[in-house]
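Homework help thread (please don't just give me the answer)

Our assignment gives two proteins as sequence + C-alpha cell strings and asks us to describe the second one. The first is just a warm-up. Here they are:
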Amino acid sequence: MAGDKEFFGGVVRRSPDGLTFTEIRGVKGVKIPELSIDMKDRKSLDSPDRVVRKRPGWADPGEFEITVYDDEGDIDEAMDDQARTLSGASTFYEIEFKSGKKWAFESFPLVTPPAPSEVDEDLEFTIKGAVSGLPEFTPAA
C-alpha cells in the first residue's frame, strides 16, 4: 500500500463503540490518516503587493489502511466492522506505536480480502476506509 510502514512493536485496536477496544492480531503494516486542508485563494484589487493571499478552508482527515496477515488476523472481526459501515455505523481505531505515541480515529472501514487464487502462505487482507472527524494524537508519556 502506498505510504505504508512496517509495524514492529506497536498495537492496533478496534472498537464498535469507542469505549471497549480489542487488539487486531497479525498486523503487518499501517498507514496513518493524513490531514489535508483545502486552501482558498484571496485576491483583491486593492492588495498593495498584488500577491495572492491563502486562507485555510475545509480540512479532510483522509483515509487509513491496516494490512493484516490472514493466518494470524481475525477477518471475521474485520467483516463485522465492514457490516457496521454498510449499516451506517462507524468503527473506532487506535494505533499505538512502540514509543507510546498513539493515533485514534473514527472510521467507516471496508475490507479487501485475500484473492481466492492465492497460494502463498503469507496471505493478507486489508482494512481501509475514510476517517470521520479529526484524528486524535496522544504523545508518549
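The one we have to describe:
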Amino acid sequence: MDYYLVTFTLPAQLRGLVWHHQRRLYHALFSVAQATLNQFAGNDRRIGSDLGLVGVLHTHSRRLAFHPHVHFVVPGEPCNGCNCSCAHHYPRRCPPKSARQDSVPAAVRP
C-alpha cells in the first residue's frame, strides 16, 4: 500500500498570532487540516470515506526559526472498518473483524 506525506503550513503573517496563542491555534491547525483531507477523501468516489491519518506538529524550521506546520502521513487506499477495499489484496494490512468499527459498541465510538 502506498502512503503520501501531506504538509500544511501557516502563512508567515500569522506566525506572531500563533506564537501568542499556541495551544488554541495548534489545535485549530490540526482540526482544519484533518477536515480538509477528509473532505478531499469524501469527494473522491474511489475513497469515499474518512482517512486513517497520522499527524506530526513541527514548530520550527531546520534553522530553528519559528515556522509552525503539520505533516500528515496518509494511506493511498481506504481501509476503514468492514469496507476494506484493500482486504482482498492485502488481508494482513486491514484490521481484524474484532477491531472493526461495526464490532465496537455505539456508546464507545468517537
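TA reply:
I won't write it for you, but here's a hint about the kind of observation we're looking for: The helical segments are 15-20, 22-43.
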